[in-house]
Amino acid sequence: MKMKINALFIPCLICLMIVSGNSAAQSKGKTIKLFNGKNLDGWYKFVQNRGKEKDVKNVFSVEKGLIHISGEEYGSIVTNEEFENYKLTVEFKWGDKTYAPRADRARDNGILLHSTGEDGGYNGIWMHSIECQIIEGGTGDFLVVGDGSDKFALTATVAPKKEGGGNVYQPGGTPLTIHSGRIDWFNRDPSWKDVKGFRGAKDIEKPVGEWNTMECIADGDDVSIYLNGTLVNQATQVKPSKGRIQIQSEGAEMFVRKVVLKPLK
Question: What pTM was computed for the model?
Answer without folding.
Answer: 0.89
